[in-house]
Design brief:
Blueprint lengths: L1 H6 L14 H14 L11 H8 L3 H13 L3 E15 L5 E16 L45 H13 L4
Antiparallel strand pairs: 1-2
Length: about 170
């Protein structure tokens, strides 16, 4: 907090604040004193809960966290949850699909004197992109499988050859 308060001091003439704004200080205080568990090092409230505790808008929380991170005081990682869902494919068969949703962010505070990264954020991933995927993979972009010569002696492959002839496929 002492470092954050020092960075909030005005450094340029004509500017009312320094690298960190007063609302960013309020967001940092809410995270540090309201949500951070000093024993486990865990801190993962939602933007809405942070906004409520810091008495500001959700958009202000996002900007404040970015400025606090740029100052080297805080870092965050996405907390993801994988959900298995049963559904039916085009042929009516039951299939299990996995959806990934972002539950919240996990925050950890960086010691200004240096030190180790908390264990709570060691195996997490961070992304500056939204949790939804704007473009899904397409099977059309994969290379077509290599052609295979069918064996007329095999009953199944023989039936496929006859079906191809009946449909007018060039063999």
């Amino acid at each position: 907090m002492h470092l954050a308060r020092a960075l909030s001091r005005r450094m340029e003439k004509g500017k009312a604040y320094g690298q960190i704004t007063a609302k960013a200080l309020a967001v940092l205080e809410a995270l540090l004193w309201g949500f951070h568990n000093a024993k486990s090092g865990l801190c993962f409230p939602s933007y809405d809960r942070i906004a409520e505790a810091a008495c500001c808008a959700r958009s202000t929380v996002a900007e404040a966290i970015k400025s606090i991170e740029d100052a080297g005081i805080l870092s965050w990682v996405n907390r993801l949850k994988r959900l298995a869902q049963e559904s039916r494919d085009l042929f009516g068969h039951r299939v299990c699909k996995t959806r990934v949703i972002r539950t919240s962010n996990g925050y950890h505070f960086i010691d200004p004197k240096g030190g180790e990264t908390p264990v709570s954020s060691g195996n997490s991933s961070k992304s500056d992109f939204r949790s939804r995927t704007p473009i899904q993979e397409s099977f059309l972009h994969k290379s077509p499988p290599a052609y295979r010569v069918l064996n007329p002696g095999n009953p199944l492959e023989g039936a496929l050859i006859r079906l191809g002839h009946a449909l007018g496929a060039a063999v």
